[in-house]
Amino acid sequence: MDALHRGWDMYLHTLDQYLTHFPDKFALVVSGAGPREGGEPVWKLLERGLGVKGEIVQGDRVRLTPEGLEPIEGVADYVAPGFLGVRTGDGLYRFVAGLHDTVVIGRHIFSDDADPEDVERAWQDWLAKLFA
């Protein structure tokens, strides 16, 4: 129940972004989650893994550089403690600090060029390396 309560605003915002920026398009949604076992706080580790330098404010142009994946260039469309949403020309990226010091990644793809299984595997591999 706590997770639903915490994530509700981002969920509604994502729905708004979908209807506003990608009307009449079908979204392929992929996700991944990473376990965390002690050490550095998950959000700090995630920010470093994404190449975040400094504070991100909603509306900022951002360039994320997850090692081994294509850079993500877009607009920070949702920013709150433990949440980062980025809208690109072909999708929405969602990064969430989950319960029990985990991280959840969601990607809404509005492109016919992506294989959702390959995308999900690539992000899950990235998370595994990040948490290794």
Cα end-to-end separation: 29 Å
Ranges where pLDDT stays below 50 over 5 or more residues in a row are: none
N-to-C series of helices and strands: HEHEEEEEH
Give the averaged pLDDT, no decimals.
Answer: 88
Strand content: 25-35%
Give the quaternary arrangement of the chains. Answer: single chain
Number of helices: 3
Q: Radius of gyration, rounded?
A: 14 Å
Quickly give the CATH architecture: 2-Layer Sandwich
Structural class: alpha+beta
CATH level 1 class label? Alpha Beta
Strand order within the widest beta sheet: 1-6-5-4-3-2
Percent of residues in helices: 25-40%
Largest sheet: 6 strands, antiparallel
What best-fitting shape do the alpha-carbon axes yield?
globular
The figure for the number of domains is: 1
Number of strands: 6
- Reported by name, the CATH topology is Alpha-D-Glucose-1,6-Bisphosphate, Chain A, domain 4
Structure description:
The chain is built from 3 helices and 6 strands; from the N terminus they run H-E-H-E-E-E-E-E-H. It has one domain: Alpha-D-Glucose-1,6-Bisphosphate, Chain A, domain 4 (2-Layer Sandwich). By secondary structure, the protein is of the alpha+beta class. The chain has helices at 2-21, 42-50, 116-131, and strands spanning 28-34, 61-64, 72-80, 83-88, 91-98, 102-109. It starts with a helix and ends with a helix. A 6-stranded antiparallel beta sheet has the order 1-6-5-4-3-2. It is globular and about 45 Å long.
